[in-house]
Amino acid sequence: MKTYDLGQTAELLEALRGNRMFIPTVLAGLCGLRRGEIAALRWRHVDFDAGSISIEQSAEQTHAGVRYKPPKSERARTVAMGATVAAELRAHRLAQVQALLSLGVRLTDDSFVVSQADGSPVQPNTLTHNWVIERAKIGLPRIRFHDMRHTHATHLLASGVHPKVASERLGHSKVGLTLDTYSHVLPNMQADAAALVDDALRLALQNRPKK
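RESULT FIELD:
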């Protein structure tokens, strides 16, 4: 598993701004969505008022084409959007409305968030193909598109987010899967936790009433 740190993630997003892979990378790197979940996401799943995204479907690539099915865990989940993600999706929606209108197509709640120029859905394999092409233009270590999801998970845990919360956000069936998958982050978390407890104890000892 290879991931980007926060600085590299910021560099990547700025380099992809205005690019066909910008929004897919935002959804993977800042929300932890899977490739199939991104390809299946429709505007009705995005609630700007609540600041959330509902993951209800996943696009699966088959020999017969693409079929839509429940997410990997077989249950829907809700992912909170940060202000950055919400702003980027609002801007993307406006640009998409204007682009489709020029083709005589009206954007609806049933339209795909990530789509082809005419509004038709993208295939999961297309996201991977486009990622390889566009990432190669940027001077960052080579990682898979799926590793942007791992990048988000690593950022969550390294920032002190509870593994249970991270597990729910990622759509893992059990928190143990999250802990096992990202165990490389845990040693640093334990060291940070020990330091926090030590600082709290030292402060308590300093502030205790003197006899």
